[in-house]
Amino acid sequence: MKLNRSTFWTRFFAGVLLAVVFALSACATGPKLVAHAFSFDGRNDEWAAQVDLLEYSYGDQYHMVRNSVTNPRSPVFKGLAALPPSTSVNGSMPVGEFLYVKWRIKATGEVLEDRVELRNLLPSNMFDHRITFAIDGKQLYVYLVTPTPRDSKQPRAC
């Protein structure tokens, strides 16, 4: 079958248009949503008395800073010396690729920050899991809470 030039260009542009539509639809679907939780409680975990929480970010979706200049969408925290020491986000949301936390030690005024890459540490199925953290002085601890208890004698599988 021989194609003339107009038929060739018509099919070519139709193919390009179809490729663009597929690319845009893939972008529009966004990241995969998984029902899980991100939370922390400095009062219950007893770190809030020793440190001030300044900033945190669970992936690019859930972040908070204490100053509305750096986060104009959060004017409620404008002028505060620190963020509240607890929060909880539950439901279908993207699994964070990292956890970033910035804090100040009250006794010394020293400001510390840590970023933990979660991508290779979390299980492939995060359904019904919870990410949380605790601060002990200069150390940040990140925990994964599973929906069912794990036998402590079993090796950890990530």
Task: Sum this structure up briefly.
Keywords: Signal. The protein is α+β, with helices and mostly antiparallel strands and 158 residues long.
Which stretches are poorly predicted, pLDDT < 50 over at least 5 residues?
16-27, 66-70
Work out the number of β strands: 8
Structural category is: alpha+beta
Q: Per CATH, which architecture?
A: Sandwich
Q: Percent helix among the residues?
A: 10-25%
The CATH class designation is: Mainly Beta
- Strand order across the largest sheet: 4-1-7-8
Alpha carbon gyration radius: 23 Å
**What is the domain tally?**
1
Largest β sheet strand count, sense and barrel closure: 4 strands, mixed
How are helices and strands ordered from N to C? HEEEEEEEE
Q: Beta-strand percentage?
A: 35-45%
Give the overall average pLDDT.
Answer: 79
**Number of H/I helices:** 1
The first-to-last residue Cα distance is: 55 Å
The CATH topology label is Immunoglobulin-like
How would you sum up the global shape? globular
